[in-house]
Fold this sequence. Notes:
Layout: H1 9-17, H2 26-39, H3 52-59, H4 63-75, E1 79-82, E2 86-89, E3 94-97, H5 104-110, E4 115-126, H6 131-134, E5 141-151, E6 154-163, H7 181-188, E7 193-201, H8 205-211, E8 219-228, E9 231-241, E10 245-248
Parallel strand pairs: 3-10
Antiparallel strand pairs: 1-2, 4-5, 5-6, 6-9, 7-8, 8-9
Helix pairs in contact: 1-3, 2-4
Amino acid sequence: MVNGVAVEGADLARLYEEQASRSAPAYQRVKDLVTEQITSGRWREGDALPSENQFVESLGLSRMTINRALRELTAQGLLRRVMGVGTFVALNKGSSALVEVHNIADEVRRRGHRYHARVLSLREEEAGKISAQFGLGARRTVFRSRVVHFEGDVAIQLEDRYVNPDFAPGYLEQDFTRRTPFTFLSEVAPLGKGEHIVEAVLPSAEECAILGVEESEPCLLIQRRTWSQGALVSIARLLHPGSRYRLEGTFDTH
């Protein structure tokens, strides 16, 4: 048993034999095997699947066949693959309101899951090209934080945020593993206006390593600017693995 999933070779072989009567290619029968275990509840969210080697040895199929089955189930959102770790039953996708601004920690906890964060960097640096956006005048530096947000043990967002120092004194002294940058900024510079730009992107090699995704996985990028008292306070780049996150919203025409 590995993280709740039985991985005995005999069990895998028996499950595959149950698919043998179906007139489908071998990779499809493997997909059906895995799908049935998940939909039946035997393999649950976050459970580890047998390794590709275990599938190959137990079922007598080629690695190419097994890899195709698992790769397609990952693309469908049923599985998630973590480089160097293994393949897992995917968590239900986290979601965020399309036009509202929320605290990601609250979103995770509302779904009944454990939230935690890892701070990659927190420092003051040269404002460079974004100085004009903030209207900093003589000031040439901004605060910058890079934080990874987790749902359970899965990274769901890489947050790269620039902050106007005039509106957030004490930003560099905060422990963002205990509360999010959003929470702190909401206290010191209450949100007056926000702007979202959403696009699909491919992550960089560094971002893949941080989020634990493959370079071919599309990601959802939200570029967010927020204002308080008419002044721009924060510019954030929020990167989410596409298989783990979605935006949703409703509207009423009446």
